[in-house]
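Reopening this ticket.

The earlier resolution said the output was attached, but the attachment link was broken on my side. Pasting everything inline this time so it's all in one place.
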Amino acid sequence: MFKPLHNYVLLERIEEENKTAGGIIIPDNAREKPVRGRVIAAGEGAYDGDERIPMSVKTGDVVLFAKWASSANEVKLDGRDYVLIKETDILGIIE
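Inline output:
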């Protein structure tokens, strides 16, 4: 199991529909990478002086993250692809 440190979040991308509303199938090489993901693991939060700032997301949350997030790192763990990102690059939780 992987446990992110501080304010990092491990996400599994949620693939978008590969067909338009009109029924046109979009090939893999023309699709953009998804910007939705499921939180697999989250750190305990960053420090502000001596206090820890708690995380706003938790395991299982579905989130929308910045398309061009500067902190995003593609990682492969146990043969699966994930995104390791700072919490500040998460735009919101999808409920």
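Reporter confirms the inline version is readable. The mean pLDDT is 84. The first strand starts at residue 8 and ends at 13.
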